[in-house]
């Protein structure tokens, strides 16, 4: 969300009839000028990137994708937009690499009256699934975190609302957050601690140089923020060993680089915030736009197969940006 204000400012200056300059079809994209698909960079292996064109699905615009989740039971890659629209994607993997993606359906997230979410209630950012690996079709639930009006809601995979998750006290009041667009950016489910979330920027009373993860039962974990201006956790995915893969973004102005970071963190009772002990972290990859990386505003992350992940970028509905779907492997999960 932080990036959007800068691009909107630039768009008022640069809109010179170039709105017709859009991609007509899904195309392969080079994420790096130096590394090809199949090659290793730091602790990840690149497995292909696609640029998705602006389009409508079931009459709903597909842009500003901010979250991903893979449903193993249904074989669906869910992509969720900033404005509460859920898309069904089918990735085409050939020889271990991402070659194409088919867009199958789209649904709006709905309120309890069956209408679409509106205004401050429509800022969906994080996504994780329940019942997506139990071998049963038709029982998948979506947990969605929202940013402007911070909350976590449960939905069916066709967007019907099922209920709410009770937030811990520090996250309940919007007055505790550092800004209007600094709410609950990411959500995951941990096998020991349950639902875990984090704000895009530290809460007013939290250490400003640390990331704080919150469990709904009250536990908290802290560790150093990535050392770049306006760095933020934008997505999380719990791994098989109980560690969490973080997707982080650093962006401060149009004159500054975009940096995308993949980092692993290990949480446990010994490094809860109340102990004063920081949790162990490890950087897996740093994708810096000044170092030959053609990155965009990556905000969504999900595990597809063991060690293999998708991430997606939010194009902010701005013609200079792209919706990129990237596939990669973590080499040392």
Low-pLDDT residue spans = 5-23
CATH level 3 topology: Neuraminidase
* Pattern of helices and strands: HEEEEEEEEEEEEEHEEEEEEEEEEE
Helix content: under 10%
> Largest sheet, if any?
6 strands, antiparallel
Estimate the mean pLDDT confidence: 92
Instruction: Give the second-level CATH assignment, the architecture.
Output: 6 Propeller
CATH class: Mainly Beta
- Rg from alpha-carbon coordinates: 19 Å
How many distinct folded domains?
1
Characterise this structure.
With 333 residues, the chain is mainly beta. The chain has a single domain, classed as Neuraminidase. 5% of the residues lie in helices and 47% in strands. It has 2 helices and 24 strands. It has helices at 2-14, 169-172, and strands at 27-28, 40-41, 44-52, 55-57, 60-62, 65-71, 76-81, 85-94, 97-108, 124-130, 141-146, 151-156, 161-165, 184-190, 194-199, 210-215, 220-224, 232-238, 244-250, 259-266, 280-288, 298-305, 308-313, 323-330. Strands 1, 2, 3, 22, 23 and 24 form a 6-stranded antiparallel β-sheet that branches. The longest helix has 13 residues, at 2-14. The protein is globular and about 50 Å long.
């Amino acid at each position: 969300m932080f990036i959007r204000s800068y691009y909107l400012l630039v768009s008022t200056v640069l809109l010179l009839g170039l709105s017709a300059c859009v991609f007509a079809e899904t195309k392969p994209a080079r994420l790096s000028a130096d590394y090809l698909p199949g090659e290793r960079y730091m602790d990840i292996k690149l497995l292909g990137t696609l640029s998705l064109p602006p389009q409508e699905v079931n009459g709903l615009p597909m842009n500003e994708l901010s979250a991903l989740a893979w449903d193993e039971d249904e074989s669906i890659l869910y992509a969720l937009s900033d404005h509460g629209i859920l898309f069904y994607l089918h990735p085409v993997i050939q020889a271990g690499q991402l070659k194409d993606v088919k867009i199958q359906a789209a649904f709006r997230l709905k309120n309890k009256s069956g209408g679409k979410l509106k205004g401050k209630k429509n800022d969906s950012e994080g996504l994780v699934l329940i019942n997506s690996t139990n071998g049963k079709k038709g029982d998948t639930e979506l947990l969605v975190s929202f940013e402007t009006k911070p909350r976590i809601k449960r939905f069916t995979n066709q967007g019907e609302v099922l209920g709410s998750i009770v937030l811990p006290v520090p996250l309940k009041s919007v007055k505790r957050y550092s800004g209007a667009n600094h709410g609950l950016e990411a959500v995951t489910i941990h096998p020991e601690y349950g639902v875990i979330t984090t704000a895009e920027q530290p809460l007013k009373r939290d250490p400003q140089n640390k990331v704080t993860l919150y469990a709904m039962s009250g536990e908290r974990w802290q560790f150093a923020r990535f050392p770049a201006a306006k760095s933020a956790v934008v997505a999380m995915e719990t791994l098989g060993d109980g560690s969490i893969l973080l997707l982080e973004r650093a962006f401060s102005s149009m004159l500054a680089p975009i940096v995308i970071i993949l980092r692993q963190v290990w949480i446990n009772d010994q490094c809860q915030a109340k102990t004063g002990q920081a949790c162990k972290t490890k950087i897996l990859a740093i994708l810096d736009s000044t170092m030959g990386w053609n990155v965009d505003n990556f905000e969504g992350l999900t595990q597809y197969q063991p060690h293999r992940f998708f991430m997606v970028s939010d194009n902010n509905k701005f013609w200079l940006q792209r919706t990129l779907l990237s596939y990669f492997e973590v080499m040392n999960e």
